[in-house]
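User:
Care to share a sequence and structure tokens?

Assistant:
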Amino acid sequence: MPCSITRPLVIFGDRWTLLILKFAFSGIRRFNGFQSSLGISRSRLQDRLDRLIEHEILVKRKAEVGAHEEYRLTRKGHDIYPILMAIRDWGDTYMAPDGPPVRYTHEGCAGEAHSRLGCDACGEELTARDVVPEVGPGLLGDQSVNQVAT
């Protein structure tokens, strides 16, 4: 389906993949570290790690110290961070009745990190009511132009 929301769901379509990424951002790099942190089966973890490597979100390489291998985020992987922060913002707002379980603070000033949607031209903060989906170059010539949706 020619949709930049639907296509990534092939990669991120289950909770395990997003949780692996969450832990990768927290500094976990080894297979056993992911497994013990997540309580996931070895085969399911290996499948999700392989998928993230296949899509160049993680890279597997020999550790700088020791004989083990580790999984490292690529630039493409680091670009997923705002997505996780947007999910976290939503979770803090609607699923944390006692307040956020974890504060993500700016190391430089101790302010809180949040994900925001903004216009690249004027900088105005946007909501779904401010955005109009339009046919883009990836859909031109496709017979499914009616599939443009929010």
Notes: The chain has a mean pLDDT of 91. The helical segments are 6-12, 15-25, 31-38, 42-54, 75-78, 81-94. The beta strands are 58-62, 69-73. The CA atoms of residues 131 and 150 lie 9 Å apart.
